[in-house]
Structures are given as structure tokens and as C-alpha cells.
């Protein structure tokens, strides 16, 4: 189990259960652990999947809300488990350049953070039961895979994120499955539009992780975390990021040419100035502050693009 992994000397001890550390209150620590700026990864695909359902004239607000709760619960649960497991495996140390990690900082113990992850995954399963009753085993299988993968991303004997498969995980679960699943629980079917739309959504979500791993190449390499960025190096990782942005630019036109969208197909191109800015920034800058800022802006781009893409289905 991950809990048996030895801590490095750089790790800070966890606080007592009845006392916050570092002047940060207990609830503030949980907010930090949830990584609120990353939650667009859970929201955008639900918006796009709901847009695809609305395109068929079958938008179901209650089902959309349930899909959103499940998506957010799985995302937050994954963030909690990553916080704890990365600390236990020695990937999060005082040298890391990104946002704070509560376990590494001693604000919460690994046991507490993992308990929070299990609560989130349990909530996702509880809400998902209503969809299982309505739609049967496909929803059950998809939900179990999503929860298991959230835990296995940095936990377990073969953590996905430590073997260069993080981007694939994000594309599959926060692109394909999240978009198509959201449409499915509203319409009872899998539409071509939902599958096609999941590609740019998943690639932009992967771009968030690509940039995160680009920033962390040195500390991940030192910790033995073999992310895709560590494996292929900084220059190739930048090319991968630019390719994800390019795919998002191409997608609206491709969807229109395929006859899947109407006269408002161009709406996602309103995000083009931000896409060009981020493409320039990531290509030319390699300092940590620029990459951290780019990471936040990529997350916001993902959400804005998702809203514009969903809106383009309505025209």
C-alpha cells in the first residue's frame, strides 16, 4: 500500500487532528486540497454533453445536474487522492513550484485527505445509482471505471500518472466518457455529436495536465515520477501542448463540415485570441511563474471553450 512508502527528509510532518498548521484553518485546507481552479475540468464536459443533448431536443436539467455532481465529486476525489499519494510517494516536496499541497505542507494528514477522497467517490456512486436504475449496466461500468481510475491515478501498485499515461486518463475520463456520459444519461443514447465534441474538450483538458507536467519535469524526474513530459522532454511536451490547442481550433470547422452543427458553429473561435496567447507563452517561456500563470489560463480557456462549443450546438 502507498501508506508504507518512506517519506523523504523534505516532507513536513502532518498536523495534529485537532489543530490546523501554518496559520491555515481546517476548512481553508480542504478548499486548497480540492484545487478549485482545476474544477473546470469537471464542469466543461458536462456543459458540452448537455449541449449535445439539447441539440437533440432532449435536455434534462435534473439529469444534467446529477452528471455535474458526479463529475465534480470524482474530480475533487481524484485531487484529494493525488495530494495524499504524491506526498507518500515523495513526488511533492518543498522544491515543487506549483500551488500548495496540503499533505506536503502538513495542513492535513494523508489519512484525512484520503478519507475525504473516499467520501467524494462515495457521493459520486450514490448519485450515480439513480442513473444505473434508469439506464442499466453501461452507466454502472463507466462509473466504476471512473472511480477506480481516479484512485489509481497516483495510488495503487501501478499509478497511472507515474507511467506516462496521465494525459490518456484525462482525455478518456474528462473528455470522451464525461461528455458522452452526460449526453447518455439525458437521452438514453450515444450521439455522433457528443463523441465528436468530446475530442476537443478532452484534448484541452489534457493540455492542462501537459502544462502542469511541463512545469514539474525536474521535480518529477527527481522523485521517479515518469510522466509523459519526463519521458519525452520539454521541447516535445511543448509541441504536444500546441497540438492540443490546434485541435481545438480545427474542431468547430470539422464539426460543421461533418454536418453536425449549424450556423453558430463558429462560436468557439471567439476563444482564438486566448488560444494564440497561450500558444505563444508556452512555446517561448520556461520560467515557473509564466507556466503557473499559463496553467490557470488554460483551465479558464477549457471552461470558456466548453461553454462556447455547447452554445454552438443550439443554432
Summarize the structure.
By secondary structure, the protein is mostly helical. The protein is 69% helix and 0% strand. The chain has one domain (8-312): Farnesyl Diphosphate Synthase.
Write the layout of secondary structure elements.
Elements: H1 26-34, H2 40-55, H3 61-88, H4 102-105, H5 110-135, H6 137-152, H7 166-187, H8 192-215, H9 217-222, H10 228-232, H11 234-257, H12 272-284, H13 288-312
Verbal overview:
By secondary structure, the protein is mainly alpha-helical. The chain has a single domain (8-312), classed as Farnesyl Diphosphate Synthase (Orthogonal Bundle). Helices cover 69% and strands 0% of the residues. The protein is built from 13 helices and no strands. The chain has helices at residues 26-34, 40-55, 61-88, 102-105, 110-135, 137-152, 166-187, 192-215, 217-222, 228-232, 234-257, 272-284, 288-312.
Short descriptors:
315 residues, mainly alpha, Farnesyl Diphosphate Synthase, globular
Helical percent range? 55-70%
What is the SS-derived class? mainly alpha
Percentage of residues in strands: under 5%
What about the largest sheet? none
Rounded mean pLDDT is: 88
Bulk shape: globular
Continuous helix count: 13
CATH class: Mainly Alpha
Please write the string of helix (H) and strand (E) elements: HHHHHHHHHHHHH
Number of strands: 0
**In the residues, how many domains can be counted?**
1
Q: Provide the gyration radius in Å.
A: 19 Å
Tell me the distance between the termini: 52 Å
Give the quaternary arrangement of the chains: single chain
Task: State the low-pLDDT regions, or none.
Answer: 1-22
| CATH fold name | Farnesyl Diphosphate Synthase
- For the record, the CATH architecture stands as Orthogonal Bundle
Amino acid at each position: 500500500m502507498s501508506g508504507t512508502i518512506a517519506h523523504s527528509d523534505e516532507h513536513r510532518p502532518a498536523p495534529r487532528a485537532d489543530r490546523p498548521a501554518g496559520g491555515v484553518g481546517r476548512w481553508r485546507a480542504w478548499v486548497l486540497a480540492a484545487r478549485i481552479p482545476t474544477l473546470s475540468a469537471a464542469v466543461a464536459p458536462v456543459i458540452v454533453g448537455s449541449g449535445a443533448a439539447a441539440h437533440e431536443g432532449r435536455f434534462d436539467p435534473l439529469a444534467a445536474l446529477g452528471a455535474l455532481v458526479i463529475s465534480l465529486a470524482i474530480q475533487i476525489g481524484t485531487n484529494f487522492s493525488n495530494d495524499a499519494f504524491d506526498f507518500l510517494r515523495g513526488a511533492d516536496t518543498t522544491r515543487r513550484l506549483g500551488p500548495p499541497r496540503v499533505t506536503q505542507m502538513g495542513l492535513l494528514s494523508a489519512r484525512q485527505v484520503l478519507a475525504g477522497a473516499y467520501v467524494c467517490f462515495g457521493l459520486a456512486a450514490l448519485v450515480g445509482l439513480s442513473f444505473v436504475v434508469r439506464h442499466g449496466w453501461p452507466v454502472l461500468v463507466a462509473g466504476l471505471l471512473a472511480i477506480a481510475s481516479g484512485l489509481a491515478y497516483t495510488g495503487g501498485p501501478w499509478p497511472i500518472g507515474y507511467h506516462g499515461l496521465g494525459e490518456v486518463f484525462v482525455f478518456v475520463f474528462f473528455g470522451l466518457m464525461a461528455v458522452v456520459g452526460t449526453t447518455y444519461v439525458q437521452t438514453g443514447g450515444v450521439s455522433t455529436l457528443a463523441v465528436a465534441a468530446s475530442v476537443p474538450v478532452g484534448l484541452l483538458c489534457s493540455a492542462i495536465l501537459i502544462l502542469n507536467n511541463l512545469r514539474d519535469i525536474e521535480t518529477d524526474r527527481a522523485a521517479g515520477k515518469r510522466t509523459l513530459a519526463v519521458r519525452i522532454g520539454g521541447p516535445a511536451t511543448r509541441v504536444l501542448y500546441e497540438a492540443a490547442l490546434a485541435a481545438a481550433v480545427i474542431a468547430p470547422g470539422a464539426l460543421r463540415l461533418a454536418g453536425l452543427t449549424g450556423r453558430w458553429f463558429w462560436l468557439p473561435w471567439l476563444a482564438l485570441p486566448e488560444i494564440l496567447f497561450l500558444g505563444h507563452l508556452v512555446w517561448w517561456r520556461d520560467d515557473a511563474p509564466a507556466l503557473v500563470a499559463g496553467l490557470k489560463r488554460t483551465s479558464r480557456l477549457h471552461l470558456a471553450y466548453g461553454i462556447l462549443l455547447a452554445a454552438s450546438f443550439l443554432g
